[in-house]
């Protein structure tokens, strides 16, 4: 008697059947995995995209929509200041994006004053004397106000907090390239600027504005 025949006699038909079912299920699972597996060539652009988040490419894609949204919703600085002074909660609801520390879209024309580390004071007519507007022009653009200005970019869109933070940095760099690269930001003092931008309401009496459009007049 052959070895296979001997083995078959030693194993019960029920056991053989169970093994057969297990083998069939395993094969079906392997086929399913194969059908749902995407093959990406190592070193290809697609491979690089899957391995790492590209903040600058994200910023290049996201900034035009952010700019369009902000310019469409921007409120005159004097109007916004009056609304915040009259009823801050109502102004946040009407003009702000976000809950605890909302981001506002604002527009103004003013005379640039003293600057330090790329942040300039701007004197805007029609505003209360105790309200300061500061404009950041780089070289470093800080904060995530641009990222958060529309409310459409959410943490859940990204793999983790690092990607979420890097997305904001990528957007800032794209804004700098599109908006500020054509302006002599080192010599703005004394000049009149027309600005549309965003700021987070950290201090109602001190707005740090990040521009999405800026014209030196």
TrEMBL record:
InterPro entries reported for this sequence: TM0957-like_sf, UCP033535_lipo
Residues annotated as transmembrane: none
Pfam families: DUF2291 (PF10054)
SUPFAM superfamilies the UniProt entry points to: TM0957-like
Organism domain of life: Bacteria
Record protein name field: DUF2291 family protein
Species of provenance: Rouxiella sp. WC2420
């Amino acid at each position: 008697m052959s070895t296979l025949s001997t083995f078959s006699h030693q194993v019960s038909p029920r056991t053989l059947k169970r093994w057969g079912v297990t083998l069939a299920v395993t094969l079906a699972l392997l086929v399913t995995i194969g059908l749902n597996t995407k093959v990406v060539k190592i070193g290809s652009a697609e491979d690089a995209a899957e391995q790492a988040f590209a903040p600058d490419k994200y910023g290049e894609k996201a900034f035009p929509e952010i700019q369009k949204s902000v310019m469409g919703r921007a409120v005159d600085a004097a109007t916004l200041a009056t609304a915040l002074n009259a009823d801050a909660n109502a102004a946040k609801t009407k003009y702000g994006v976000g809950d605890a520390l909302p981001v506002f879209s604002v527009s103004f024309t003013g005379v640039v004053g003293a600057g330090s580390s790329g942040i300039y004071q701007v004197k805007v007519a029609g505003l209360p004397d105790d309200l300061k507007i500061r404009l950041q022009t780089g070289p470093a653009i800080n904060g995530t106000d641009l990222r958060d200005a529309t409310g459409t970019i959410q943490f859940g869109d990204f793999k983790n907090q690092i990607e979420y933070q890097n997305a904001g940095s990528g957007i800032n760099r794209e804004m700098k390239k599109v908006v500020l690269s054509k302006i002599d930001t080192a010599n703005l003092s004394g000049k009149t600027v027309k600005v549309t931008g965003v700021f987070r309401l950290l201090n109602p009496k001190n707005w740090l504005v990040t521009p999405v459009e800026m014209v030196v007049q």
